[in-house]
Amino acid sequence: MSGVGENQLISIVPDELKFLFELEKQSYCDLKVSNKTENYVAFKVKTTSPKKYFVRPNTGVIQPWDSCIIRVTLQAQREYPPDMQCKDKFLLQSTVVPPHTDVDELPQDTFTKDSGKTLTECKLKVSYISSSTTQRSSESGATNGDGTGSETISTIQRLKEERDAAVKQTQQLQHELEMAKKRRKDSGNGLSLKLAALVGLIGLIIGFILKLTLASSPT
Fold first, then answer.
1. pTM
2. With contact defined as beta carbons under 8 Å apart, do 81 and 35 qualify?
3. pLDDT at residue 97 above 50?
4. For the chain, how many helices (H) and strands (E)?
5. Cα of 130 vs its chain's centroid, Å
6. Which of 4-13, 29-38, 49-58, 207-216 has the lowest mean pLDDT?
7. Where does the pLDDT of residue 213 fall: very low under 50, low under 70, confident under 90, or very high at 90 and above?
């Protein structure tokens, strides 16, 4: 097991997940995972609170010297955590896989420690940023005239815009998933109707042949 944010296979930026925390609103944090080797590397993201976070992709394969973005979305919460302290943690496991391996081809025991493979791990902490706290800091900075206030306001605005964009993207993905399910259902119904029509047509042909056979038979 390796330290926070980096091991001999991959590097992770940032090394801590920070979320702008507001009640009844989603927030997200992007992680850039880079493959530092000439091998294909598979990864898997785990968390101590899987019901609170939406991770996409949570499993993947990174080509040599390539990278990918993992988006971790904090689901809307109904209450503030005590003292705004978060004890949630994330674990990113990685291991070398054969060249040109696709994520759908990964064996079920790929990330099992007793599978005989070398498995490396990175731990990531989680912290929450309160909008009210940052607002007070910005006001204090503006009063002191040190320029920190405007920077903090800009950061808050950016985080809110990114959160809103994440919410829209999540809703769009949910809509596309529903449409895909509907298309599969409609396709299945269409196939059933075509099959029934084909069976009926075959029945008519067989009946017609039998009729001709009987009509041509000597009495």
1. 0.60
2. no
3. yes
4. 2, 9
5. 25
6. 207-216
7. low
Token pair of 130, please? Answer: 């309160």
Residue 3 has a pLDDT of: 47
Q: What are the strands of the beta sheet with 120-130, ordered from one edge?
A: 16-21, 120-130, 89-97, 40-47, 59-62
3-state SS class at 162? helix
Angstrom CA distances, 73 to 63, 108, 126, 131, stand at 25, 25, 12, 17
CA distances from 3 to 74, 91, 107, 125, 172 (A): 24, 11, 26, 12, 36
- Confidence class of residue 2 from pLDDT cuts 50, 70 and 90? very low
Portion of the chain with pLDDT greater than 90, in percent: 50
Q: What 3-state DSSP class applies to 89?
A: strand
Structure tokens at 6: 């980096």
DSSP structural state of residue 6: B
H or E element that contains 161: helix 148-216
Q: What percent of the chain is helix, strand and coil (3-state, nearest 5)?
A: 40, 30, 30
Task: For the beta carbon of residue 201, count every other beta carbon within 10 angstroms.
Answer: 10
Element spanning 12, H or E: strand 10-13
